[in-house]
Specification:
237 residues
Amino acid sequence: MNEHRVLITPMEGDYNRVLSPAVILRQCLNSVLCDIRSDGCDRDVIYKAVGATWMISRMRIYQYAQVNIWDTISYHTFPRVIENGRYIFYVEGYRGDELMIRFDSVFMPVNAEKRKVMDIEEIEPLWNTPPREAKSKFLTRMDMECDYGPAGTQTVRYSDCDGNGHLTSPAYLYLVCDELGFWGGEARMMKFVQIDYASEIMPGTVIRFEAGEKDGAKLLRGYKEDGKLAFSARCEF
């Protein structure tokens, strides 16, 4: 296990001066990516070796208490697990001894030129340490069947995108929170969110949303201009 300590400064606070879901996601991902780098499989390494880059196919966050500005959060990270041909990374966030956040994610190596998922056997020899055994948390794609209604649209900006040339994982969560009315009024806490990433979203793309509710959760799906599903999200707040 590794530990990454982060002081939550005022400029990281949201509308209500607490840590937003997207920033929580960003900090968890930064912790994982630091571990990947120290373990020998940074993006620059795998790109040079086999033409690969890292992408995330799904992630979920459980939040148990509000994270405030000036809190110090210790992100505990764990070595990779291999399940169904994908890499699984887990993170736990603590304030002192209090568990605040749990983050689960699925990483996959993608051929940067062909935009095609690669077999992890091409990546495994590059790691400094072996994978670990862990009990599965069943990080599978969600059941998103419900009655949906049309929602709004948003346009992806270059400032929302990363070095892979498409929308960052945290930026998806900003879209979700804006579309579902997460902000406004009293501070809310995202008790649970899972996002299943379906296809890349490039700058300038207009995303059309449809929203619904099921079993007390808010469901959102985003579609690109060609009608292709971009992502699905399930939230409880």
